Amino acid sequence: MRNTDFTIQFIMATAGIVLVGAMLRLPPVMSVNDASRWNTVWALTHGRGYVIDPPAEDPVWEALARGKARKPDKNTYPLHPPAPGDGAPYHTIDRWFRRADGHFYSSKPALLPTVLSGVAMALGAVTGWELPGDDGALIRTLLVFLNILPFMGLLYVFDRVLRRLEYSDETRLACVVFAAFGTYLTAYSVTLNNHTVAAVAVFFALAAAIQIKIVGRQEWRWFALCGGCSAWAAVNDLPSVLFAGGLLVWLLVGHWRPTLIWGLPMALVILGAFLWATYASTGSVIPTNFATERFSYPGSGLWAGGLKGIDAIQGESKGMYAFHFLCGHHGFFSLTPILLLGLYGMIWDRGPLRWVHRAGGVLSLVLLLAYALRTPNYGGVCQGPRWLFWVIPFWLLASGATVERFRHSRIFWTLAGVLFFVSLVSVGYALTGAFELGVRGPWGESWLHRLMRGAGWIDY
């Protein structure tokens, strides 16, 4: 047991060191996605509110001026291009134009950048760092606290849950290794994004719920942790509100009093913060995700005739979309097939977490169907199905049941080794970045995407 504990701690430390090393090699801002969020942090720390106007030389200002000149009766917006050299420092298209005041704002939910801006100002008060001049040091330090340390915490809590379930040492070791290096939660921990933040929160909420419902713990902190973490997941990755709502109902059954006293208030505090940040940044409590008309303005992709390329694949059937989301170029299973081990646990496990496993399977299926039926978008230029990342904790927990069930089989370990090898290749490819191909970390095409296009199977 003691040797196993030491080995697992070594694995966690190794994962953290690998992530820091990869982060130091990669640029601090890697894509238009994280650039949009960092622009908001820059604006807040420089007293500009949530305004992220692009530089004056950005072609969008000329497009806005032309649109206003052609249809002055419809395009009545004011224009306030910044002075030369005074615009937002990072290029992004993930923005929207508020016609009421003539300024640009990030299309990303505002709460996470708001929290980061507070931490950035505290760090700046001590170190003198600020964006964009010190972005290498400041951004990487923030990412250590936001992504890497919580990810290491996930690995530690994962092992604690496996131990509580009385799984064998070899199961604990294997599952922690799979979690540490076999999913895109690892790869995306080197960049600012909402998906890993939500996934870690989902895992911590599940771990707290297991303490309450399976172990029988009734201390207030577990209910507060459930409410807070599930709400934090929901405000960062909005579809995970399904998880937060389901978890609340599960806790209310048999534990309604502490849930209402401790769990619900924590969730409402975070929800209130989210609504406040949304209103402060948009003038409305409706998230930008649900107000697509904000993205249509002269110079935008929607204004020019709609999204194209990977953001809106034309002529592809819904069935083919679902295939690529599961087993194709953005495949949940093709890129990180180690998650296939969770299938057995979700379907056939009869242990104490069987209903957690079933819930994870249902949530995964609902998400797949929703995206397949509603959008031709794969999440933009990125590696892996990032919209499914927040359900990865369910698959990791379910994989524990699978490993424990088949741990005496050599065939199983051979299969698991092959699955893990492919997963490791995908994660490693995302972490290293193919700079000669224009791939900056996980915000680029996966190796499988490039392989399939090179073979002529896809043309995008």
The secondary structure category is: mainly alpha
Distance between the termini: 51 Å
Q: How are the strands of the biggest sheet laid out side by side?
A: 1-2
Element-level helix/strand string:
HHHEEHHHHHHHHHHHHH
Stretches where pLDDT is under 50 for at least 5 consecutive residues are none
What is the domain total for the residues?
A: 2
- Overall 3D form: globular
For the CA atoms, what is the radius of gyration?
Answer: 23 Å
The average pLDDT is 93
**Main pleated-sheet profile:** 2 strands, antiparallel
Instruction: Give me the number of helical elements.
Output: 16
Helix content: 55-70%
What percentage of the residues does DSSP assign to strands (E)? under 5%
How many strand segments?
2
